[in-house]
Each structure stands twice: as structure tokens, then as C-alpha cells.
From TrEMBL, chains A, B, C, D:
Organism name: Chitinophaga oryziterrae
Protein name: Sugar isomerase
Alphabetical UniProt keywords: Isomerase, Manganese, Metal-binding
GO molecular function: isomerase activity; metal ion binding
Domain of life: Bacteria
All copies of domain Xylose isomerase-like TIM barrel, residue ranges: 100-285
Length: 424, 424, 424, 424
């Protein structure tokens, strides 16, 4: 299932007139348009390999058809997305679900699709067949040294895979925690985790980062050993400059002010990056921007303001990744919608009149501050995104194009109706 | 793995002296002791067949050993529990996980263990192999009539199985809902569900009940079609007197006052019964009483007060069932702890000085009301439960006995180390 | 402080060119534009009298200047708002904070400002000087008949005031509840409340409605006697056709799906109307649309769809009111922002392609449903609202105009710097 | 209103027999009883001066009678509590509500009642009459240097008051935050706060501590500048060894695992102490142990385990204070209940079999860990508390005694029926 350039060109042609009308309307009102378009073109969101297949819940899974059956097909899928939106130029692999047996071939395939390898992810929340020790009671925090050792070695192995592919970060999420009061000694668990992380940290190549994700709950339902940003930051500070905190939007207690957390982590130089998704209740892993797009905008507003204050490069100095699980949507359509939502929030944040906002903040003028933010938010920036995509060789309306070309039908023809992605 | 009477007798003998000391201490302070002991002996909690194996989360499952491999072994496990605590005298089956191919033999086996068949549970939240239509987008609320028909027929089939076994209630939990705004027309979903329920209701034998469970979220993460007690009650009222609302402790939004809900449902004559478990975050399905035992007591306090006001029989006029999922505990030990926690809350509620409480309420004397409730709650009622168990032929300390007799080791020897219960 | 027509005309003139450019851009893409503009002009949001002064929390209040000191000045303030946005054509009074001593004069004043009297609000959550019985332990649910009687009579008195002014609904919010387990008998409280409501219901004029608001918690922190929509609906159904449920956006437990509640209440013919505000944590009473504007849109989407299905008149068949409390903003600016946010959500909901949405729902096409909803939501509808305002004689940009004319400074000159609105 | 020793003796005599029976029953089962009784006698809980009058909500206040009208009467009230329970031997003052005009006289009065002065509290969340700058938009985080300076000087003044009275800690809670997105620059607010805190820190006497409280929300409803333990710890670490984090049980997002936070703060040597209360929804400030007593026990379990691991003195090495607000109870009765609940949780935690628990934790034996914890929790420790009280000269049943002696009636006779405590 390849997308040909002429197909894109034909499609774009058919929407050109309407697009130009919309683009010119917004363009006239924007200062620094070329710079904004360039930033939009540069911005890339990594696709996690596990989001390419239909997800599930503990109550069951309802697979879709044509899902990728191996790492090669996963790269092909990301290539498809990237061909359409030109904003999905990297993939984040998960070991052991996506072991690159032949790194050179895998890299060549990715290069063909203009795809980079983002952070690599380890997995110590499931037992693999033949594994010596079980992670039932945790991994890096385990009371048994042998289990910790196995988990440390797995992480170091994941780094090795990453080095071969040109990755430069290990993204680490631990399910370690407890389900019942008394089950765990919290300090002991913290100290074991720190010891384990220090061994992994020591194995990092000099230009690598260690991204430490936190999560309030699930799959453990009483405590999680890296449960909030404060705990993650404690670890990152004790480990050293390569260690940073990774924020996943769905990993908080109800009503948390995530934008404030982001701002403070950036201030401390300890924000690694983002796992984007949306949620209403818990770690629901829904399409980015499907539940609360204004919150996403507010987060981007803090990111841009904080990165600019530190002269950081938006496109390269933080990790941007989707982490969602698509239970009732076609995974590729869902990812197109998620990337679009991220680009919209980013574009809106770029439109905020920072100077006016700072003045309003200095005066405690909450009314003016809201007007300034909501003016940017209420602006229909879709023509800007579309224009950036057009300039990069993508399609004006990715979801529409995807359906018109019957991409899923093509994938089903190639791969079959009953496929389950590895790792799902 | 059979528990012999002499083993129980020997064990109890070893603890007899200490038990008597404790029992006599509390007994002297209690009015109406014989009646309370009788109520404790009469009270029985149904064990759901799916709680006999190790549960899991969407991130994985870590099975234990010696788990029951079929309906017969599940009944045997409940028999084991009942032999120990004499309070687990019924089982709640789940179709299609526990299809009773030979009802007569199954009934004979259950009778041997002094086990009754509680409500039967249908399953329209998973697709079974060979099923004509998928429940990916719901069952009784589905936009497609054919899917609804299939789900209705399944429920009617479950009733038939229940009739054969001597059950008298269909317990119905629907995962039907939506993951994204716009996916569902709420009114349409409600009306389809009502139509479907009416067909199922029409198929109920005259002495049967339909228990309608509600749940705020999961596995759907935007809306659930029967999402709270208000919606369940709407359905139950539209259906008729056989339909009632089932309350599961973990199926609420954060901070819900469940005891008030219970009280009002009882007032309306529409409380079907309970699914007991405990939780800190969502539907965590933890051991009953492991997180917030005071809440459990407050619920029982409302139940007893409300049932007494309607002259209901505590043991028989509501459905009492555990619905938990044991990810890190031996399932049988977990169930022993859960039943014990329920018995403790029930005993504490029986000790509440109702007249004094009513007087304090009449005077808006919140201090006295709290003293009265907490006096009952802080009383160590474990000797009462133990005494009731002793009178019924059970063991004084079930968990301790279970470990001393190495029951799990026996089950592993019989069934193997790697077993997964049907349905898990 | 009067706004003169020529001031509005001059101001609008200065923004005319830019407005027309924006309006024509959006107008070309919209079907049925005249009808939509008419609906936007017809739509009116009631202003509660207590929102015209600075609010406060239990930790203190920081008053602003020029606040209205009596009912006449409150009506003048609403008149100011309405002159600007032409969408605030009614006021909701609160007794005893706003007793209309001379109804004829008050009505004349309101008519002068083109202001109608929306629902009247009773207050049984505070003790007034000289009151015979205290509401410390509740009002309509009180264990003491004398307290209930006093509260019933107060409500009937409020109806009388409302009749004189031309109101046609009594809006009733009860703080009644309990702070501690055991303090209250839930059934007793429900029954007392029902008895009390029946007496009030009997006193309603034939064309009046009784709006029953619910709230999960605060100022009581254990239980609230009308705590959720299910309880409010129970009361409304037991009372009769004049009784309906009023929804306040901030009165729910965390993560509640309010749009589903709205849809079901509409389906049952029992939705009275809305108290608009926004919140992040609890009943924060923030500016409408300041925290989660997409949720507001989703609610309007259900309202429009549900009202259209019952052929209801958007403007007149439900009660639309703001209920916010402005702690750090100029109250009038805040209300202008709130009304604007409501109009935006309403306009976006009017743009939803209902037929396409229904088709997507029928097909369980969550991707398409989201595209359809978000297309309407992402459309910048501000030029539509501005145009409707222009057609009605209002100003293009109310907040900007308000500041440019230094309205607050004028009010301070008239009323003084240290004023506290009655009731605050 | 003085309690005479003979009154206590007579009262205790009347309950002696029953108490002895209960005490001996539990005493036989406990190892190290004398040491436990000594610890219970040594443990003292500070009473905040503002908890001695009836609290209120933003919706109103319903005062009780006989409330203390000045600092002297507040000390007298704490003296009353301490005479009864011998566990309330200190008071925490709040400036400017309780300015000690004559420190020597105040100290003499306190000494007479055997009362110590715990941490002093500053107040920058309300404006006082005649204050130069308003705290409407915050204090230590304010964008205006003059406001920050005023707030810094107030805190330094509070330290001076504390020094005179023999206090040795400044307890600081900031309401600083924002109500709307955009209102505040988070980094700017953090940095301003840090600068301000550094000035206050510099003014601390050498043996003093600075306790930094955090709170998730209220009275600000979008962000709080010291919003969670992670932020408080960041400040405390940047300030130095005298700065520590204070935990208030009601200041968290829903479902937070407070016991884990406590454990980690202790591990880092940064736990200052506790503000005890209970809550169901937010910062409800209810009686300690009235909603979730098991959580209180779990927190004490972590405290004792963590303090013992660092060889800390339970009674003196952390700050223990109640921070509640009594809206519907007699404040003194409420405080007696709160102190009793704290003593019960402490006693239960002392009974935990630490060695067995550690062994269960090492084995990941969640069932055994729960049995161990719940065995201690289910033990009726009230006779232990009563015995400790008896040994210290207190009364066996404080609430009962308080009512029997008609203490409130006496206070009303002395002070009048309509009194409002200063600061309320």
C-alpha cells in the first residue's frame, strides 16, 4: 500500500481553491507568517509502534483488519502517516514487541519513508515466555535482587537496540507499585528503584537521555512507585543531568493542573517531553484533543513560553510522542486526528500575543489575559496547518484522503482481515 | 483437595481458649446476642465464578497455580471456602464462561458442597468465537437491530441455564457506551436499551428478578449507557416490579456517597443487591474492606436500617455478592478476607444503637451520632464472627487454617502450576 | 452611567471594515445563515443579581469598586450589559437579597432597559436577622416541622414577589444535607423534603414552573439531600408536570458526563434549564468557557439536538442563566465574557451537520463523528455572534468597548470605591 | 469555667470498673505495654486557635454560643480540652487574629493550663483594615514588589511574636494562585515566591523551622503556587535545612495516596508535620477520623515506621496539629473527637507487628501484610487511650464528661450566647 505523489497532487488540486481562500483569510491577520509556517513544518510527532494496532481493555479487545504484523509493517504504517501529514517523521519502538533483528535493514526501510527512530521503550510490566523471574510484584523496585538485575539488564539491552537504530533516549515507564496497603515498604521501593536506575543510567551512551515517566495508578491500584512528577523529579535529580521527567497527559489524579507541572519542570531544566493523548476519567488513552482541546492548548502555551525563555528549539529539544490506544477507531485514522490536534494546539500557541499577555499578567488583569489566550484559541488555524503540510509535500486533508484512497481496504487486502499487532 | 471435619475440629481446638476469652469479653456487653449470632450464621455471600482465578489488567496477567479449569472445579473451590467460613454458600455463574452442560450433575455437585446458585450473569462485552455479530460498539443499545437481537437472545439463553440450576435472577451488566463525543446518540442508545430490556424482561420466569447494574466508566471512556443509579432506576421503573438496581461499590465517580444511594434505592423498593469490592481510584476490584472499611460499615448501616424499616430479611431479601479481581493475591485467600470484611461490617452494623441514633438525628446532634456509629465500628467484633462460624461448623481463623493446611499446594498438585480459569 | 446609541455607532464604525471581512468569510460557508442569525439574536441569557458584585470564598472577599448597592442599581447593571451585547435581556432575582419593595417602579425601570424578570430564587441556606428558626441543620428537609414551615412560607413569599414582577418560575436550590455520617436519616430527609416541596408546588400559579437544582456537595460535606440529577428527577416526577430539574455545570462529582445527563432529562421532558459557569475542581463558579469550552459546546450540541427533536423553541423553552461568582475579575467584564462564551457554543452547535452526524452514529463511525463535531467547534464563529449583535443594536466587541468607555470608572464615580452588593 | 480535679476523680470513679475490665482484656495481649502507655501519654496534639469557634462556608456561618472572644479565652478553651484529655498541651496561634499584646501575661496564663505555644501562623490571604496593599492577587508571589515586601514583613513580625511566646516554627500557608488560565506566569510566580521565602528564611532564629504547607486548590480555582508536595519540597530544598514540608490531609487532589507522600518526605528528612482533619470531597475540614479512619491509621503506620527508622522521637520531632473547621458541631466536642481519633490511630500503629510486616513485604505476601495491618486496626484500643489519659490525670470519657458537666452551658453563661471568635 504505497501512496504515490501524483495521488496527493491530484487530491490537493481538488481542494486547492477552497484552501487558498481560507489560508489567505487567516494569513492577512498574522505577523511573522513565514516563521510560523517553518515551525509548523519542522514540528514532528513520534508514533509509538503499539498505537498502530487496535488496543483493548481488561474486558476484551476487538481487533480491526490489516493491522501490522511485524516491525517492518509498523514502519510502513508510520511511513503512510508521514506521507500524508509530513508531521509523523519518527517511530518509537517497544522492546520486546518490536525487536529489530536486522538493524541495518530496518534503518534502510525507515530511511526510505523518511522516518527517524525516537526514544526506545523497555517493558518490565509483563512477563515474556521463558523469562527467569516474574514481574508480578514489580521490576526495578522489587524486593528480590535477582528480579531487579533481570530488569536492569533488559533496559540495558534496550539501549543497545536503540544505539543500533540511531535512537538517543531510553523511555522508561514502570508499572511497579502495590495493590494493597502494607504490601510495599515505600522507602524500600524507592531506594531499590534508585539503585536500579543508577545502573541503567551508568549504561547510557554520552549523548543519551533517560526519560522517567510517572503515573498515578494502574495497573497497580494502591500505590505506584513513580507516581507523580514530584517523585519522578526526585529520581531525575538524584541521577544526574541525563535524567529527565516525561509527562503523559493521562497519568494524573483527577483535575491536576498539568500545564503548571510542565512549566515548573521546564524551569528546572528537567522536562524530557510528552506522551500525548486525552482522557475523561483516568488513563483512557483517547485521541489527542478529543475530550479537552483547550487544556492541550494551555499546555502548549506553557511549553512554547517556557522553551522560548530558555531559547530551546521547539522541534528538537523536547520529545513529542503520541501514546494512545485506539479501541473503537481505525488506528491510522486515529493517529491522523491526534497529530492534527497537536499541530492545531501548537499553531494556536504560536499565535498568542506574548507581550500583551505578559503585560496583562504584570497587571493581574485576568480578563485581558483570557481574551488574549482565547483569541488565539478561537482562531481557526486549520488553514495554517494545511498550508504547512502542502509546503512539505503532504495532503490538505489527511483523513479525507485516507478514506478516499481506501487505504485501510488496501492494507486488509495485503495483510488480511484478522491480524493482531505484535505486543497487543 | 477436601477439608475433613476432624481437621477443622483439631484446628479450632488449638485456638479454643484464646477465642473463648475474646468472645466472652465482647459477649457480656451485647444485648440480644443469640439473635445476632443467628443473623451472622444466616448471612451468605455469593462467590462469582470469575473471582476464583487470578485476574489481570490491560497491561497483563500474572496467573497463579492450581486455578480451577472448569465449572466443576470452580464449584469445588467455593465449596472449600464455604467449608471454612460457612458464609460462602452460593456461586454466581457467568455465561459463556461457565456453561453447565449437565445441569443435574452440576446441581448434585453443588448440593454436595451445600452450595446454592445465585444470580446468573450474561456477557455481551466480549465477542465469542463464531459469534455472528460483534459487540465492539455495544450490545443491547446497538444501532443495528441484528446485534441487539443476538444480545437479547443470549440473555434469554442465560435465563434458561439459570432456571435449570435453580437460580432466580439475571444479573446484567452492560459495557455499552462510547469512547468519543459524538459517537453515540444518547437518547437513541437509551431507547434501544429499553426496548431490548423489555424483551428480556418478558422472558423472565414469574419468580425471577432482573438486576440492572450501572457503571460510570470503563471499558468505555466517554459515556456509559447505564452510567449511574439514576439511569438504572429509570430503566427499572419503566420495566416493572421485577427489575431492580444493582450496586457495585467500584462503579461510581470519585467521592460518590454510595450509602445515600443505597438508602434511596431501598426507600423506592428498587435495590436488587450488591457487588462488593473496594477501590481507591476507579473500578479497582480490590479485596472488600482493604481500602476503606468505614465506608463499608456505613453502607451496611444504611442497609440494615433500611431493610428493618421495610421488615426485610437480611439474609434473603437482597443479593449479596463479591465482585473482585485478584491480581496479586491467592484468589481463595482474597475471598476469605473479603467475606470476613463483609461479616465484620454486618456485625458492626447490627451493634448500632438504632434508637439512640434516631434520637441524635432528631436533635441534629452530629457529635452524638458519630459517637454512636463509631462505638459500634470500633468494637472488635471478630470474636462474634468467629463464634458464628464455630456454631455453623466452620473454622475460627480461615486464612490461617488455609495456609496451615497448605490448601493451595494441594490444588496445584491436583491441577498443575500453570492453569488459567475459564473466562480469564 | 448610560450608554448612548451614538457611542455604540461610533465604536462599531471603527471596527466595521475588519468585521465585514471576517463575517463575509464565514458567511459564504454557511447554509441557512439568516435563520442562524435570527436564532442568535433571539437567544437571551439571564443574569443573576448576585453576580453583579465581587464574590468571595470562605477565606475572604476582595471587593471591587462601583458595585450596585440595591436592586435598582443591579437592574441598571444588567441594562448596561444588555445594551452592549443584546443577549442579557433578563435578570434573576434572589430573595431576600433583592426584595422589590415597589414592584411597579422596579418593573418600569426594567422595561426601560428592555429587561425581563427570569426565575426568582429563594434562600434557605442562610439565616436572616430576626428569623425565628435557624437553617443551620437545613430547611425543607429539617427534622423540626417549625423550621420546615418557615422555609415553605419563605418560598411561597418568593413566588408572590415573582408574580408581581412577571416571573414564571421558582428556582430552588437547597443547601440541606449533612457534614457527618450518621447525622442524617437519608430517607427521613428525602420524605421531609418531598412533603415541603408538595406544599410549595401547591402554591405555584398555573403557568409557573418549579426548578429543582441539585448539587453534589458544599456547603455540606458528607451528604446533600438533593445531591444529583437522579434525586432531583425523583422529586420532580413525584411532584408533577410543573416540576423540573435544573442543571448547574459546577454541581457534579469529578468527571461527570453532563451532556449525557442533559440529553436524558430532555428525553424525559424534565429539563428545566441551566446555570452556566465553569470549574476545574468543584463548584468553582468561574467564567463560562474559561476552563473547558469544548464541554460547553458538547452540552449545547445535546441541547440543540434534543430540543429540535421535541420541536422546542431554543430561546424560550428552557431557562438559560449564568451562575458564577467573580472573585478576581470586574463582574461586568466577567459577565460579558460569559455571555460571549455561551453564544459561541450555541453558534457552534447550530453549525453541526446533524444529518451527517446521525449517519456516522448509525455506522458507529467515531472518527467521522469527531470530525463533524470538531469541524463546527473549530470554526471561528465570533463574526457570526458579532453580526447578530450588530443587527440587534449592540456593540461589535463588548469587552473592548466597556474598557474604552471607562464604564467601571463611571460607576465608581457614581457609587463610590467601597461598595458591597447586597447579599454579598 | 474551671474543671476541678475532684470532678474528674468522681467521674472516673463511676466508670472505673468497666474501664478496668476492658483495659485488662486488651493489656494481656500486648507486648511492651508500659512503653506504649508512655508514648501515648507523651503524645500531644496542638490546637489551632481558629478551631475554637464555629467555622463557616462561603454560603454562611451559623455561630454557636459561648465562643472565645479573645486570645485569653482561646487559651482557656485549650486548657479545658487539655484538662480533659491530657493530649492537647499546645496551641497554635494565628496572627493577626490572635495578637499577644502582653506576651508575659499570655505565657503565664498558658503555663497555668500547662499549655505550650506550637508553630505560629501568618495570614496573607485576607486584607486587614488599614493595610497598604491588597492580597487580592496574592502575597509572596505577587507581581508587585511592594505587596511582596508587605507580606514578607508580616511574616517576620509573626516570627517576632512567636519568639516572645517560646514558639519555634513559622507555619506558612499561601493562598497565592490564580483563578483563570493566563492570569499568572507560573515560573514568575515560583521565582517571586522563592525570593520572598528566602527573606523570611533569613529572619528565622537559629533554632526555628519554616513549615511550608501546600494545597491543591481553594481559594484559587485554577492554579495554586504551592500546589502539591513536589512544589513544597522544591522550595524547601532550595531554601535550606530549616525549611520543611507541612502536610494537611485535606489539601490533595481526589484519591491521592497521602501515606506514600508522608513516607517519602520522611525519607528525605523534609517532613515538618501534620495538619489533621478529614474530608470526603475537598478541603472539607471535618473532624479527624470521621470519614476515613483507616486512611488515618495507614498514615500513622508510615509515620511511626519512618520515624523509628530515623530514630526520631514520636512526640517531639514532628509537628502535630489539628486543622479543622466545625460548622455543625460544638467546637470543643469536635476537638475532643478529633484528638481521640488521632490517639486511636497512633495506638493502632504502635500495635503493628513491624517485624512480621517487613517479612511479609519481603515476600510480596499482600495477604499477610493486610492481615497484620488490619489486626492492629481492628483491635479496640480505646481502653489503652483511656488508661494513658487516666495515668496523666485526664478523664476516661472526655465527650461524655464534657456533656455531663454542662461545660458549654457554663461557657455561654460566662461569655454570652452570641459570640464570634476573633478571626471568624
Amino acid at each position: 500500500m504505497n501512496i504515490e505523489k501524483f495521488q496527493i497532487a491530484e487530491f490537493n488540486q481538488s481542494l486547492q481553491q477552497s484552501h487558498e481562500r481560507n489560508f489567505h483569510h487567516i494569513a492577512e491577520n498574522i505577523n511573522g507568517l513565514p516563521e510560523i509556517l517553518q515551525k509548523l513544518q519542522d514540528f514532528q510527532v513520534a508514533i509509538p509502534s503499539w498505537a498502530l494496532g487496535t488496543g483493548g481493555t481488561r474486558f476484551g479487545r476487538f481487533s480491526g483488519g490489516g493491522e501490522p504484523r511485524n516491525i517492518e509493517e509498523k514502519i510502513t504504517d508510520v511511513g503512510l502517516l508521514h506521507a500524508l501529514n509530513r508531521s509523523s517523521g519518527s517511530i518509537s519502538l517497544h522492546i520486546p514487541w518490536d525487536i529489530p533483528e536486522n538493524a541495518a535493514a530496518i534503518k534502510a526501510l525507515a530511511a526510505q519513508h523518511d522516518i527517524r527512530f525516537d526514544a526506545v521503550n523497555s517493558n518490565t510490566f509483563q512477563d515474556q515466555p521463558g523469562q527467569a523471574h516474574s514481574y508480578k510484584f514489580g521490576s526495578l523496585h522489587h524486593t528480590d535482587k535477582a528480579v531487579r538485575k533481570q530488569a536492569i539488564e533488559h533496559n540495558i539491552e534496550v539501549i543497545r537496540y536503540g544505539v543500533e537504530l540511531g535512537s538517543n533516549a531510553l523511555s522508561l515507564w514502570l508499572a511497579d507499585g502495590s495493590c494493597f496497603p502494607g504490601q510495599l515498604n515505600f522507602r524500600g521501593a524507592f531506594k531499590h528503584t534508585l539503585d536500579s536506575l543508577q545502573e541503567i543510567y551508568a549504561a547510557l551512551p554520552s549523548d543519551w537521555k533517560l526519560w522517567i515517566e510517572y503515573k498515578a495508578y494502574e495497573p497497580n491500584f494502591y500505590s505506584t512507585t513513580i507516581g507523580d512528577w514530584g517523585q519522578s523529579l526526585l529520581f531525575a535529580n538524584k541521577l544526574g543531568p541525563k535524567a529527565q521527567t516525561l509527562v503523559d497527559l493521562g497519568h494524573h489524579l483527577p483535575n491536576a493542573n498539568i500545564e503548571q507541572i510542565v512549566s515548573l519542570l521546564l524551569m528546572e531544566g528537567k522536562l524530557a517531553g510528552f506522551h500525548f493523548n486525552d482522557s475523561k476519567y483516568g488513563d483512557d488513552d483517547l485521541t489527542v484533543g478529543s475530550i479537552n482541546p483547550y487544556q492541550l492548548f494551555l499546555i502548549f502555551n506553557e511549553l512554547i513560553e517556557g522553551m522560548d525563555a530558555r531559547s530551546m528549539n521547539h522541534a528538537t529539544d523536547l520529545g513529542w510522542m503520541i501514546d494512545a490506544s485506539h479501541n473503537v477507531k481505525d488506528p491510522l485514522e486515529d493517529l491522523l486526528q491526534s497529530v492534527e490536534a497537536i499541530m492545531i494546539a501548537y499553531a494556536q500557541a504560536l499565535l498568542v500575543d506574548t507581550k500583551a499577555l505578559q503585560a496583562a499578567q504584570q497587571d493581574n488583569d485576568a480578563v485581558a489575559a483570557q481574551e488574549i489566550l482565547q483569541h488565539a484559541y478561537r482562531t481557526d488555524v486549520r488553514p495554517l496547518i494545511a498550508q504547512a503540510r502542502l509546503l512539505s509535500g503532504g495532503v490538505l486533508e489527511p483523513v479525507y484522503f485516507y478514506r478516499k484512497l481506501k487505504v485501510r481496504e488496501g492494507l486488509i487486502k495485503e495483510r488480511g482481515l484478522k491480524t493482531v499487532a505484535t505486543g497487543l
